[in-house]
Design goal:
Elements lengths: L8 H10 L4 E5 H14 L7 E5 L6 H8 L4 E4 L2 H9 L7 E4 L5 H10 L2 E4 L4 H8 L5 E5 L6 E3 L2 E4 L10 H13 L4 E5 L11 H20 L3 E5 L17 H16 L8 E4 L3 H4 L3 E12 L3 E5 L8 H5 L5 E3 L9 E6 L8 E8 L7 E4 L20 E5 L5 E5 L4 H5 L11
Parallel strand pairs: 1-18, 2-3, 2-11, 3-4, 4-5, 5-6, 6-9, 9-10, 10-11, 13-15
Antiparallel strand pairs: 1-12, 7-8, 12-13, 12-17, 14-17, 15-16, 18-19
Helix pairs in contact: 2-9, 4-5, 7-8, 8-9
The structure holds pyridoxal-5'-phosphate.
Length: about 425
C-alpha cells in the first residue's frame, strides 16, 4: 500500500528555499480533520474532552489549533504547565499527569486550578503539605498483572512504575474524602501505540468496574474516567488507521453495561492522546547529502537522530518517501543514515526505495508526535525548525531552528560564551 506525504516535492522545495532542511512539517488540514472525527466519535458522551498530551508535540500553534476543538492539555512537568499557562489554559482545561513530582510542580498545578492526577498514594500527604488538597482529584490506577485484549498480552502493568494498586485505590479514596475531596476521576494507561480497535474499550471496562466498586464501597462521587493516551498510528504502510468510531462505540457499550445501571451517575470521558492526534500529520523533511558504498549502500542525510530519535532508540519503523519519486519503483536497497557518531543513527535499514540522487528530499512519515519533542543536542546538533503547512497551501514558521547561540545559552556563565 502506498503512503503519500501531504506535500509534493515542489511544495517542499518552496518551503526549503525559505527554511533550510531539515525541518518538521505539520499538516493543518490533517490535524483538524482527525480531531473533528475524534470529537464526533465521542460526542455520545456529554462531558467528553481530549487533553492533548503536550509532551508529544509541545508547540503553541499546534496546541492552539487543537484548542479550536475545545481540547485541553495534559501536562507532565513544570515547564509544560508554564506553557499551558502562557497559552491561556487554566482550571479543568489542564490535566496534570506527572510522576515523581516535585513540590514546585504541584504548587503551580494547584495555582492554575489544574486537575491533579496522583501517581502514588504517598503523594496525598506530599501534595497536602506543599500545595493543599483540591476538591476534585484524579488517581492513576495500575491493575498489575498482564494487560490482555482477547487473551493477547498487550502490556505488563505489573512491571510499570505508574499508578496505585487496587487496594491502594480504596485506601486513597477514603483518605482523600476525609481530607475534603468532593469529586474523583480515575486514570489508567496500560499499553502504548495500540493499533487495534480494542484498547480503549477494554481499558474502559477495567476503569468503569473499578469506579462502580469504589463508589459502592466508599460512597465517593466519580465524575470522570481518563482513558489517557495509547491509541496508535499505522507507522507501517501495511497497517491500517484505528477506526475511531468503532473504538468510541466499544467504550459506549462498556459504559452502557457498567456505568448506566450503577449508582455512579453521569461520567465524563477524558482522553490524553498525543500520537493519535499528531503523528501522522507531521513529517521530517531532510535532504540527501552523501552516498557511501562500503559493505552496504548508505544514503547520508542532513537530519539525524537528534531530530527524530525513535528509530535510534526503539528501532522504530518510519516510512520514507523520496519526494518526486512517489511512483518510481522501489528497486534499490539503502540504509538511510544521519550524521551522529552513533551507529544507531539510522532512519532506515535495508529499505527498498527508488533510486536516490544527491539533493533529493526525503519525507520521513509519522514524525508529528514524539518526534521534534524528543530531540536533543548530542554531537552539537541543533534542533530543527517546525513549520505548519496550512489549509490554503501557505506555510508558517511555528518554531525557529536552533542556532549555535541556543546551544551555548547555558554556558553564559563564561565570558567567551556570553554572546
Ligand atoms: C500520562 C500520559 N498521557 C498521555 C500520553 C500520550 O500518549 P500517546 O502519545 O501514546 O497517546 C503519555 C505518553 O507518554 C503519557 O505518559
Amino acid at each position: 500500500m502506498k503512503r503519500l506525504p501531504f506535500v509534493t516535492k515542489e511544495q517542499a522545495e518552496q518551503i526549503a528555499k525559505v527554511y533550510p532542511t531539515p525541518f518538521h512539517l505539520y499538516d493543518e488540514k490533517g490535524i483538524e480533520d482527525n480531531m473533528n472525527e475524534l470529537l464526533d466519535a465521542f460526542s455520545w458522551n456529554k462531558g467528553y474532552r481530549e487533553y492533548f498530551a503536550v509532551k508529544a508535540t509541545p508547540n503553541p500553534a499546534l496546541i492552539k489549533l487543537l484548542a479550536k476543538g475545545d481540547c485541553g492539555v495534559d501536562c507532565s512537568s513544570y515547564t509544560e504547565l508554564l506553557m499551558a499557562k502562557k497559552l491561556g489554559f487554566s482550571g479543568d482545561k489542564i490535566m496534570f499527569s506527572s510522576n515523581e513530582t516535585a513540590a514546585e510542580e504541584y504548587v503551580l498545578a494547584k495555582e492554575l486550578g489544574a486537575i491533579i492526577n496522583l501517581d502514588d498514594i504517598t503523594h496525598i500527604d506530599f501534595l497536602n503539605e506543599v500545595a493543599g488538597i483540591p476538591e476534585k482529584i484524579c488517581l492513576r490506577y495500575n491493575p498489575g498483572g498482564d494487560f490482555k485484549i482477547n487473551n493477547q498480552i498487550m502490556g505488563c502493568p505489573a512491571d510499570a512504575k505508574y499508578g496505585l494498586t487496587n487496594a491502594q485505590m480504596f485506601e486513597a479514596v477514603e483518605k482523600l474524602m476525609a481530607m475534603g475531596v468532593k469529586e474523583f476521576g480515575i486514570h489508567a494507561f496500560l499499553a502504548s501505540n495500540n493499533i487495534g480497535n480494542g484498547y480503549y474499550p477494554e481499558l474502559a471496562r477495567i476503569i468503569f468496574e473499578l469506579i462502580v466498586d469504589l463508589n459502592k464501597k466508599t460512597g465517593a462521587k466519580f465524575v470522570f474516567a481518563n482513558l489517557s493516551g495509547g491509541i496508535g498510528v499505522p507507522y507501517r504502510p501495511e497497517q491500517e488507521k484505528v477506526d475511531i468510531y468503532q473504538v468510541a462505540n466499544g467504550v459506549k457499550e462498556a459504559y452502557n453495561k457498567i456505568i448506566v445501571p450503577s449508582t455512579v451517575g453521569e461520567l465524563a470521558l477524558y482522553t490524553e492522546l498525543g500520537r493519535y492526534m499528531l503523528a501522522p500529520y507531521g513529517g521530517l523533511i531532510t535532504r540527501v547529502l552523501h552516498f557511501k558504498h562500503i559493505y552496504k549502500e548508505y544514503v547520508g542525510v542532513d537530519a539525524c537522530a537528534a531530530h527524530l530519535m525513535r528509530p535510534a532508540i526503539y528501532g522504530a519503523y518510519h516510512h520514507i518517501t523520496v519526494l518526486g519519486k512517489e511512483n518510481a519503483p522501489s528497486d534499490k536497497v539503502y540504509d538511510v543514515v544521519g550524521s551522529l557518531c552513533e551507529n544507531s543513527d539510522k532512519f532506515a535499514v535495508d529499505r527498498n526505495l527508488p533510486e536516490i540522487e544527491k539533493g533529493d528530499l526525503l519525507f520521513i512519515h509519522e514524525a508529528g508526535a514524539h518526534g521534534h519533542s524528543m530531540g536533543y543536542n548530542y554531537n552539537g546538533k541543533l534542533r530543527s525548525a517546525e513549520i505548519l503547512y496550512k489549509k490554503d497551501g501557505s506555510f508558517e514558521l511555528i518554531r525557529r531552528a536552533e542556532t549555535p547561540k541556543d546551544y551555548f545559552a547555558t554556558l553564559d556563565i563564561y565570558d567567551e560564551f556570553k554572546d
